[in-house]
Amino acid sequence: xxxxxxxxxxxxxxxxxxxxxxxxxxxxxxxxxxxxxxxxxxxxxxxxxxxxxxxxxxxxxxxxxxxxxxxxxxxxxxxxxxxxxxxxxxxxxxxxxxxxxxxxxxxxxxxxx
Length: 113
What we know:
Elements: H1 5-18, E1 21-25, H2 35-45, E2 52-55, H3 60-70, E3 77-80, E4 83-86, H4 88-97, H5 99-105
Parallel strand pairs: 1-2
Antiparallel strand pairs: 1-3, 3-4
Helix pairs in contact: 1-3, 2-4
């Protein structure tokens, strides 16, 4: 039985709410399956914070639902503090300007415990 898109949107919303940093990628953090996913993961790793990854390749319904959920046509998609940040190019640009670090710091999450 396939999960309906509305139910998938609820799953996506719950996942984003449950984790401070969520990335929807092709593959996993340890083995991204596309260059854009790999570049985004590499950028995020520089902050040494936990990242919850969701592999969109594991479910075609999820892969399409994340695009309609965010109204963003490409993957990867990064969410920080419940808000949509963007894809690979935006994440890299925000890293370069320091905005990404500020956004992560604004979470006020203690990752040492």
